[in-house]
Backbone:
């Protein structure tokens, strides 16, 4: 076979692989947005039903909650700086109707302790973790855990 033709086919295959992986990253991002929106919607419905506020734990740059907390200062409304998990939250038990905890559990040293503390301060916890079908779930350097069928698998 002609060496130029071989080079062309290799280049074509590499381009298709790059295109497919880029497409998969876009799908991952859209999935993340949809999953977070769905959790926020369910949390709002539940909290309004029980007439209690919402806690947005690990808020990042979002202000989904009536109270938004994170371990680093953020410029969102109703923000409160907290200690990293597994520190106890400065709220009374069952103060909140719902907690939104999106993409935090995979970063903490003890996910069970985090979940217990969130269940202490709220009636219902809406937890969002990265799906194990996406490559960045496994490769993101700060991820300590991957959750497969609700079971924690230690990465680092």
Residues:
């Amino acid at each position: 076979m002609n060496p130029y033709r071989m080079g062309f086919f290799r280049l074509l295959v590499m381009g298709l692989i790059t295109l497919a992986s880029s497409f998969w990253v876009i799908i991952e991002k859209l999935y993340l947005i949809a999953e977070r929106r769905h959790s926020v919607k369910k949390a709002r419905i539940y909290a309004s039903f029980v007439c209690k506020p919402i806690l947005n734990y690990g808020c990042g740059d979002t202000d989904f909650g009536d109270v938004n907390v994170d371990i680093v200062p953020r410029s969102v409304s109703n923000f409160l700086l907290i200690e990293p998990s597994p520190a106890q939250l400065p709220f009374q038990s069952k103060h909140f109707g719902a907690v939104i905890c999106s993409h935090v559990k995979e970063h903490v040293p003890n996910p069970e302790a985090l979940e217990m503390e969130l269940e202490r301060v709220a009636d219902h916890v809406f937890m969002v973790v990265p799906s194990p079908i996406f490559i960045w779930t496994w490769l993101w350097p700060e991820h300590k855990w991957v959750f497969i069928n609700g079971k924690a698998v230690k990465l680092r």
Residues 3-50 form the longest helix (48 residues). Residues 45 and 106 are 26 Å apart (CA to CA).
